[in-house]
């Protein structure tokens, strides 16, 4: 558990910057919602930027990491969940508590107010907790879509996967299509964690834990049907203390060109000694 208490003072010490690549081991579908359907197009398109290039929204990546950490921490039970939305058929439940040492709420933020628990008494929190973690949109590296891959794609940058749902009684097929970024594509990722007190340091290993959990889970839609397997590589972790911003001091590289396991080892070896460096 975290060492935070209600009396913990918050003041920026610095920022940990983790940048790297996210590789698609299988096709990736992060949906854009069902809008107008073009002739010959997919009825489940992927989200794209203003230039028509697929990207992974930071909110999708952040939400998946949070969900995996909640499950790993035993915080996905009814007594630990609150409703963000109770609209029928579109219920949204997430973990939230008023405990000052709750690492999930410290890492992802907490808003004050009254929230209905899935099970138990209504949750009332009076203090906001600033989110330490920022996850940025991950743009596609266009060079990762090779000319050979383009020859076999349904669109310039994406493929269309056809699926069938079969009625168990009548055997009637219900075909559907799923647009995916193909296996082999790469996205550029960026995670920034604010350290607002020395007690925040143990929160960064939780982020690395969430990313490692994601590598053995799935991102986006269709995960149980083979989509969304990803892997992180070419990672670089840097520390930017207050003097980096106030006086132009250089950043400190903690690990580079690495896998998640190597970044974890570098963080453990450093023992966060850089927090006390000028």
Overview features:
278 residues, alpha+beta, five-stranded antiparallel beta sheet, two-stranded antiparallel sheet, globular
Helix content: 10-25%
Identify the strand order in the major beta sheet.
7-11-1-12-13
Helix count from the secondary structure assignment: 6
Which structural class should the secondary elements be placed in? Answer: alpha+beta
Q: Average pLDDT, to the nearest integer?
A: 92
The gyration radius over C-alpha positions equals 21 Å
Any idea how many domains? 1
Please state the overall shape, judged from the principal axes of the Cα atoms.
globular
Query: What fraction of the residues are assigned to beta strands by DSSP?
Result: 25-35%
* Largest sheet composition: 5 strands, antiparallel
Order of helices and strands: EEHEEHEEEEHEEEHEHEH
> First CA to last CA: what distance?
28 Å
* Record field, number of beta strands: 13
Segments where pLDDT lies below 50 for 5+ residues? 35-40
Notes on the structure:
About 2% of the residues have low confidence. The chain is α+β, with helices and mostly antiparallel strands and 278 residues long. The strands form 5 sheets. A 5-stranded antiparallel beta sheet has the order 7-11-1-12-13. The protein is built from 6 helices and 13 strands.
Summarize the structure.
This protein has helices spanning about 60-70, 105-110, 145-150, 205-215, 240-245, 260-270; strands spanning about 15-25, 55, 80-85, 90-95, 115, 125, 135, 140, 160-165, 175-180, 185-195, 230-240, 250-260. The chain is of the alpha+beta class.
């Amino acid at each position: 558990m975290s060492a935070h208490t209600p009396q913990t003072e918050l003041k920026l010490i610095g920022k940990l910057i983790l940048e790297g690549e996210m590789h698609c081991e299988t096709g990736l579908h992060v949906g854009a919602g069902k809008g107008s359907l073009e002739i010959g197009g997919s009825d489940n398109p992927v989200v794209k930027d203003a230039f028509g290039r697929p990207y992974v929204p930071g909110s999708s990546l952040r939400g998946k990491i949070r969900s995996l950490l909640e499950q790993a921490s035993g915080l996905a039970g009814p007594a630990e969940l609150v409703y963000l939305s109770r609209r029928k058929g579109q219920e949204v439940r997430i973990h939230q508590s008023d405990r000052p040492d709750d690492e999930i709420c410290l890492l992802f933020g907490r808003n004050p107010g009254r929230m209905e628990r899935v099970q138990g008494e209504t949750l009332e929190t009076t203090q906001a907790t600033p989110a330490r973690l920022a996850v940025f949109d991950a743009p596609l590296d266009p060079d990762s879509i090779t000319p050979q891959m383009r020859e076999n794609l349904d669109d310039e940058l994406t493929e269309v996967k056809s699926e069938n749902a079969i009625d168990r009684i009548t055997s009637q097929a219900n075909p559907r299509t799923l647009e995916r970024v193909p296996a082999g594509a790469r996205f550029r990722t960026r995670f920034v964690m604010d350290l607002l007190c020395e007690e925040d340091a143990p929160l960064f290993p939780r982020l690395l834990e969430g990313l490692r959990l994601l590598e053995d889970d799935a991102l986006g839609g269709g995960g149980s049907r083979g989509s969304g397997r990803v892997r992180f590589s070419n990672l670089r972790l840097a520390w930017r203390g207050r003097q980096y911003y106030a006086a132009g001091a250089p950043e400190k590289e903690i690990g580079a060109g690495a896998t998640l396991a190597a970044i974890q080892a570098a963080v453990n070896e450093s023992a966060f000694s850089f927090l006390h460096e000028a």
